[in-house]
Design brief:
The complex is a heterodimer of chains A (567) and B (177). Chain A is mainly beta and 567 residues long. Chain A contains six helices and 39 strands. In chain A, strands 31, 32, 33, 34, 35, 36, 37, 38 and 39 form a nine-stranded antiparallel beta sheet that branches. Chain A is globular and about 95 Å long. Chain B contains seven helices and no strands. In chain B, helix 1 packs across helix 3 and helix 6 packs across helix 7. With 177 residues, chain B is mostly helical. The interface between A and B is large, with 45 and 52 residues.
Chain lengths: 567, 177
């Protein structure tokens, strides 16, 4: 440091800064460290992390130090380049046929807690807090195309309520209902996107109001009072909990036409003992939790109520302490959480499979559940708890579901820590993404650049190669499997010119990385081949697995199946 | 190092011993306990992911600090995105005029420091909280020593400018009142 610079130092500022920085916490919150360790316990380490070190060590060991070794090294490099070039040529020539893949349908989660709406992606990143001074915001519900968010707003200044339409970044698009004296918790957006439903009026005697998204004009659903509306999958019926025209309480269903009259599906003395309704995917049945005997909440059970009328089926007893409405998976199975235990219930037989997201996350009772639009993830909102002044923050976690509806822990808790504030009004809404118009298919085109690296083992005819690395840039019609493909492999050569391949692969794009292993065979002359890979998604693809099967003589047939990862 | 080989218990012990120091650094860079906790949690997961890439276990502390500083950068970037909605809760009542001496100086430093860029905040924390030399800072941040030295210089200069601007604003407010 020059004398001038030294002379130019502001020693007083540095001393003040040092003293000021010395103040402040010195200990990390134990829960944060525990959460990270817990997350790591369920997290596969990225295989290339260790591979990088091992390959670097291998390079160090084989670095040419004498003429003979240098020559051998050069020969090996040339051979690997040839081998990699042959592989790249084969990959370049591939024109895989389309294979059906599920569209990417899951977007952001909108979480209502403590008067705020938290927007978070399924991995806990991109967190935005949509809040405004003097307002309590709750009950988010996404439009069918995921472009808008409708929320219930309580204006603390004048006590009024309204429904606002927001863009996902919190920009107010318009107020679609109100301000009025009261809007009950629970909004619904029809699957065809044409109607928003809310319950307004006097607390305890609300009317269901439908707001057209074409004209933004509200109109009441005639002949009934009620709350907690839920549209049928076809968008032609709406179920809610309330009273019919004769004042009989229970679960009702109505058409949307102005003249439609609500029908009583399930009479119960106290509408408050009935949970929010959930429709089955085929639209034939409404699932609710309600007292079996009609009165006593101790007899509450998951009930299957035919929408067209008919006998109600008692599927699963849950008891009085249920805080979360059931959710129905696209498979038709129902997720029920009660007493810190979850069950996946078969809608036909009532058979319950234990699945325990509450125990997976800790000891708190979940306060909200939501299924992702593709049905492969479940969002769980756990409240914070306080023991005296020792408060544990609430948490949001997501779980994966297998095709049979079984719930698996796949992501653990998200790094979203919620303050243990007002426990009411907690809810989750999962943003659907518009389906792509183009057909969803496997790889369209690839271009590969080879990286020469590898170590021959065995005699001079190089019967085996380890650590061969090939990188490819791949563009696919499904963006999830587009990106940079890196293969690190071992090649076992047979005397007849055939080979067996095995190694690790990673496919990286901005949303995440697929990590896995592959193995297969190549016929003599590198013609026919049969390679299978299994890749586990990270980032936005956490909870998913991609199975890849490449066969043929070239052009190859590539088939990629993306499905929930199963532990 | 067992944790490098995938021993999760060893990893847990390792991060428990390191987390207090890392949290203290994160808090001082971000000036927010919740964001510091988030940054720490993400850094710990990144440490697990990247630990096999650490060749020299003796360098763990500096290496972990580098990962933490990176997560702090990301957290600070997200802080800027949220400033629009969070600013509703920022206190700006002018009550600092009722304070004197040390408390007022701390407030002034807090305001000035918060207005610095994340990389300036980070290098000041490394230098004046950890008492790291320019050489150590350069190794921790993975930048040349010359870059570290100039960044430190500009960070101090920016902080001084912010403090002076703050003083001028306070003087102007006093004159108005």
């Amino acid at each position: 440091m020059s004398a001038g610079r030294r002379f130019g130092r502001d020693l007083e500022l540095e001393a003040s800064l040092t003293a000021w920085l010395a103040e402040g916490p010195e200990m990390a919150p134990a829960t944060v460290v525990d959460d990270a360790i817990e997350a790591v316990d369920r997290r596969p380490r990225r295989p290339w992390s260790g591979l990088r070190v091992r390959s670097r060590d291998a390079w160090d060991r084989t670095r040419p130090g004498e003429p003979a070794r240098r020559l051998a090294w050069a020969a090996m490099i040339a051979a690997v380049l040839l081998l990699a070039g042959a592989w790249a040529a084969l990959v370049l020539s591939s024109r895989p046929s389309p294979a059906p893949l599920p569209a990417r349908m899951n977007g952001l989660l909108a979480v209502a807690v403590g008067g705020e709406i938290v927007i978070v992606d399924p991995n806990g990143h991109r967190i935005e807090v949509l809040q405004a001074a003097g307002e309590e915001r709750s009950d988010p519900v996404w439009s069918t195309d995921g472009a808008y968010l409708a929320i219930r707003v309580h204006d603390l200044a004048d006590g009024s309520y309204r429904v606002d339409l927001l863009a996902p970044d919190g920009t107010l698009e318009r107020t679609v209902l109100g301000p009025v004296d009261w809007i009950a918790p629970g909004l619904a957006w029809s699957p065809d996107g044409r109607w928003l439903a809310a319950a307004t009026g006097i607390p305890g005697a609300e009317s269901i109001v439908l707001v057209s998204t074409d004209t933004w004009e509200p109109r009441p659903l005639s002949g009934a009072t009620g709350t907690r509306p839920a549209f049928a999958p076809a968008g032609d019926l709406i179920a809610f909990v309330g009273q019919d025209g004769s004042g009989t309480p229970g679960l009702l269903v109505s058409g949307l036409d102005p003249g439609a009259r609500p029908r009583q599906l399930l009479e119960r003395l106290d509408p408050g003992s009935i949970s929010s309704p959930a429709w089955t995917p085929d639209g034939t049945t409404v699932m609710v939790i309600a007292p079996v005997d009609g009165v006593d909440v101790a007899t509450r059970a998951l009930l299957s109520v035919p929408a067209a009328g008919g006998p109600t089926l008692t599927l699963h007893e849950v008891g009085p302490d249920v805080t979360v409405a059931p959710i129905v998976l696209p498979s038709g199975r129902i997720v029920v959480v009660a007493n810190r235990a979850a069950a996946i219930v078969d809608p036909q037989t009532g058979e319950a499979t234990p699945a325990d997201p509450a125990a997976a996350a800790g000891s708190a009772e979940p306060r909200a559940l939501a299924t992702s639009p593709d049905g492969r993830r479940i969002g769980v909102l756990l409240p914070g708890t306080c023991d005296g002044s020792d408060c544990q923050p609430g948490r949001l976690m997501t779980l994966g579901t297998a095709p049979d509806g079984t719930v698996h822990r796949v992501t653990g808790s998200l790094p979203v820590r919620l303050t243990p504030s007002d426990p009411d009004g907690w809810s989750i809404a999962w943003q659907p993404l518009a389906r792509p118009d183009r057909p969803v298919a496997a790889t369209d085109a690839q271009s590969c650049a080879t990286q020469a690296a590898g170590t021959p083992t065995g005699p001079a005819d190089r019967e085996r190669w380890d650590g061969v690395v090939i990188s490819c840039s791949t563009q696919a019609s499904d963006p999830r499997v587009s990106g940079t493909f890196k293969l690190t492999m071992s090649i076992q050569m047979a005397p007849d010119g055939s080979a067996s391949l095995s190694g690790t692969s990673e496919l990286t794009n901005p949303d995440g990385t697929w990590i896995g292993e592959f193995s297969g065979t190549v016929a003599p002359g590198y013609t026919d081949h049969d390679v299978r890979a299994s890749l586990v998604g990270t980032g936005a693809y956490a909870g998913l697995r991609a199975r890849l099967h490449i066969t043929g003589i070239g052009p190859f047939t590539s088939e990629i199946v993306i499905e929930p990862a199963v532990e | 190092m067992a944790a490098r080989q995938g021993d999760r218990e060893a990893f847990a012990a390792l991060v428990r011993s390191a987390s207090d120091r890392l949290y203290a650094i994160a808090y001082r860079i971000l000036r927010d306990p919740d964001r510091a906790a988030d940054a720490l949690q993400r850094a710990l997961i990144a440490i697990w992911d990247d630990l096999p890439g650490l060749r020299d276990p003796d360098r763990f502390e500096a290496w972990a600090t580098r990962l933490l500083v990176r997560t702090c950068y990301r957290e600070a970037a997200s802080e800027r995105r949220q400033a629009r909605v969070r600013s509703l809760h920022v206190v700006g009542s002018g009550h600092e005029f009722d304070m004197t001496g040390l408390i007022a100086e701390r407030d002034r430093l807090e305001r000035g420091f918060r207005r610095l860029s994340p990389d300036h905040r980070a290098i000041l924390v490394l230098r004046f909280y950890l008492d790291a030399s320019v050489h150590e800072i350069a190794r921790t941040l993975g930048i040349p020593e010359g870059t570290a030295e100039s960044r430190l210089h500009y960070a101090l200069r920016s902080l001084r400018a912010e403090l002076e601007a703050d003083t001028r604003a306070a003087t102007a407010r006093e004159a108005v009142s």
